[in-house]
Amino acid sequence: MLNRLNFRHLYHFWVVAREGTMARASQVLELAPQTLSSQVSALESEVGGLLFRREGRGLKLTDLGRTVQRHADAIFEAAEALQQVLQTPAEDRPLNLSVGISASIHKLIAWRLIEPALQLDRELNLSCETGRTPNLLNDLKRRDLDLILTDRPPALEPDSRLYLHDLGSSPMSLFAAPVLAEALREDFPHSLNGQPFLANAVDAPYVSQLMQWFDGAGVEVSIRAQVDDSALIKVFGHHGMGVFAAPGVIADEVCRQYQVEVIGQVESVRDQLYAITRGAHPQHAAVQAICQGRVDDSSKKADDKD
Questions:
Q1: Which of 45, 81, 214, 250 could form a disulfide with 219 if both were Cys (CB 3.0 to 4.6 A apart)?
Q2: Statement to judge: residues 67 and 211 lie in one domain
């Protein structure tokens, strides 16, 4: 049987079963849907029966397909564990770490989250990629990334083998250039009514919460600019273009680096952070260090990394 079973065909079937459609699996594997379909058909010939049946726009496993999937789960989970062991460098070699960072995360927060990996007693070759979480998830599935840092928990399928780690949260603070901040601190938050606001253009989860908080407080701000770079928002704020929001846990660093001041803190609006890994118990030492840290650990101090 092993002489007849093509493990590449089996792996491609396994990805299709996990993703639920040929289209999604093709995107993950970077193969044409027709190529992928023919490889699944070849596996069906090898095992002697249909593995899927069409249901709406998706695919549903047959009884034989579920049986093959269970064994494929064991095979490829063991292969991944072996791959992690084999890829772990010797103690005197650098450890490679590839991190995907959601574009909506503040760079100082990203630094705090990655910092535990940099404190390991081992040289680290770090690679960071910013982007939108759905795109980063595909890179994680392809093993181009070791983990993702995000502020929005995606809907993970139970059989996706991806795991969400809670890294803590921080209340949001509002900042402005010193002269403007001093004027707005009195009668906060009502003093914000009509003030120019610098918004995050990548639709960070805290933005909609903050807008609801403004509305509940009877405050109507004027959106002065929408910017998809958290560092650029702070630069605009430094030059007096308006009020901007950032996690309170990095308030000291924001004020020091951008010469702005805190207007006030909004306890009910929080920036929640997560790590996404392949499997609940990653073997990678640097990934473990990040997943065991928390952004709300006040003992962490960031340097000028933004």
A1: 214
A2: no
Q: Could you tell me which residues come within 8 angstroms of residue 239 by beta carbon, excluding any fewer than 6 positions away?
A: 177
Whether 175 shows a pLDDT value over 90: the answer reads yes
Whether residue 287 contacts residue 277, with contact meaning beta carbons closer than 8 Å, is answered with yes
pLDDT band at 93 (very low <50, low <70, confident <90, very high): low
What tokens were used for 9?
Answer: 């065909």
pTM to 2 decimal places: 0.69
> In sequence order, what are the beta bridge partners of 304?
none
* H or E stretch at 52: strand 52-55
CA-to-CA dists, residue 21 to 4, 13, 86, angstroms: 26, 11, 32
Give me the helix-helix angle, 63-87 and 7-19, nearest 10°. 110
First-to-last alpha carbon distance for the chain, in angstroms, is 56
Chosen domain end from 87, 119, 151: 87
Q: Does residue 63 share a domain with residue 167?
A: no
